[in-house]
């Protein structure tokens, strides 16, 4: 499941402000994925706060065939019973703080297995680092964190965590992390660059027609995909000029080594790769390298050298 939670996480929030049906919105957010393309939602979630479980089940029946066709997981928000309804294509349940099962994921999975749904996936919403740690111990398939920005989709939203809070959460999370809360194209791109695996969106996908939603979904998915792509290597060198090409190569070669992460003060998510002998670093890998070097935002490298030159930080052996 983790590898599928990458990119645009589309929330189908009902009732739709322009009166569209769940299946219409679902086709829209899936966009090119319905024809085997890449630009569309990687996950779809039904969020229908003010209806009954039987009504949610009927909505899911209309949505699921399109998600199956696109090969995209379909989640239902808050409602374990609806998730266990046996509809082909309904992949999992997303639980918020205070929802039944949020602190008992193994129990939810056992209940699902006993109901004939052995592979039910579970996602959990979190709003601060304490919740994130506790939720991670439950072993969910992914974690959501936010709100990153102010949002109007919740009547009583939690405090905004901002991109700095999201960055800390991405370093801490041991599961794929979905950024949630008031995100649009620009802030969604930034969320991916600081390490989120996916970005949950409601308002950014709202349009009067299925075709309009599809256009938005294509644009958002393309931007998020580009944000997750490796940086050109000369850009990595420009951002971290104190680390030699040879050492950047070594770091990429040994990035799966947990011992190296611990020794150099790098988070577990640090995962540069080698491709055809060239190191590939994502934006979040560069951020982690700067973090371990104790490089402050906006600080010049000359000021950094003056401040840290006599210290013995965890990355002192790769400083140049």
Structure notes:
This protein is of the alpha/beta class and 320 residues long. The protein has 2 domains: 227 residues, TIM Barrel, CATH 3.20.20; 86 residues, no CATH class. Helix content is 40%, strand content 14%. It has 13 helices and 10 strands. An 8-stranded parallel beta barrel has the order 1-2-3-4-5-6-7-8, surrounded by 7 helices. Strand 1, helix 1 and strand 2 form a beta-alpha-beta unit. Helix 1 packs parallel to helix 2, helix 1 runs parallel beside helix 8 and helix 7 packs parallel to helix 8. The mean pLDDT is 92.
In the CATH hierarchy, the architecture of the largest domain is Alpha-Beta Barrel
Global shape: globular
Which secondary-structure class do the elements indicate? alpha/beta
| Poorly predicted parts | none
Helix content: 40-55%
Mean pLDDT: 92
C-alpha Rg (nearest Å): 21 Å
How many extended strands? 10
H/E series? EHEHEHEHEHEHEHEHHHHEEHH
Alpha-carbon distance between the termini?
A: 40 Å
What's the domain count?
2
Largest sheet: 8 strands, parallel, barrel
Annotated CATH homologous superfamily of the largest domain: Aldolase class I
Looking at the structure, the CATH topology of the largest domain is: TIM Barrel
Q: Can you identify the CATH class of the largest domain?
A: Alpha Beta
Tally of contiguous helical segments? 13
Strand order of the largest sheet: 1-2-3-4-5-6-7-8
Give the amount of beta strand, in percent: 5-15%
């Amino acid at each position: 499941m983790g590898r599928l939670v990458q990119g645009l996480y589309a929330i189908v929030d009902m009732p739709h402000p322009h009166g569209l049906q769940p299946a219409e919105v679902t086709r829209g957010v899936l966009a090119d994925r319905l024809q085997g393309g890449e630009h569309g939602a990687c996950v779809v979630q039904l969020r229908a706060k003010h209806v009954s479980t039987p009504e949610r089940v009927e909505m899911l029946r209309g949505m699921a065939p399109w998600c199956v066709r696109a090969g995209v997981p379909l989640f239902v928000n808050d409602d374990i019973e609806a998730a266990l309804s046996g509809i082909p294509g309904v992949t999992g349940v997303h639980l918020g703080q205070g929802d039944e099962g949020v602190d008992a994921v193994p129990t939810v999975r056992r209940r699902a297995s006993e109901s004939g749904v052995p592979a039910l996936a579970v996602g959990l919403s979190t709003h601060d680092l304490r919740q994130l740690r506790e939720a991670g111990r439950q072993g969910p398939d992914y974690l959501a964190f936010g709100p990153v920005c102010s949002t109007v989709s919740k009547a009583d939203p939690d405090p905004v965590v901002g991109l700095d809070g999201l960055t800390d959460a991405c370093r801490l999370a041991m599961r794929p992390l979905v950024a949630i809360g008031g995100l649009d194209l620009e802030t969604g791109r930034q969320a991916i660059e600081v390490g989120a695996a996916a970005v949950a969106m409601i308002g950014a996908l709202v349009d009067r027609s299925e075709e309009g939603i599809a256009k938005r979904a294509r644009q958002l998915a393309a931007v998020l995909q580009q944000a997750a792509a490796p940086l050109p290597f000369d850009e990595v060198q420009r951002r971290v000029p104190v680390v030699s090409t040879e050492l950047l190569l070594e770091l990429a070669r040994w990035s799966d080594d947990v011992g190296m992460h611990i020794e150099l003060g790098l988070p577990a998510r640090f995962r540069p790769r080698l491709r055809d002998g060239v190191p590939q670093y994502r934006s979040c890998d560069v951020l982690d390298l700067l973090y371990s070097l104790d490089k402050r935002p906006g600080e010049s490298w000359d000021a950094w050298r003056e401040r840290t030159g006599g210290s013995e930080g965890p990355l002192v052996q790769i400083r140049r």
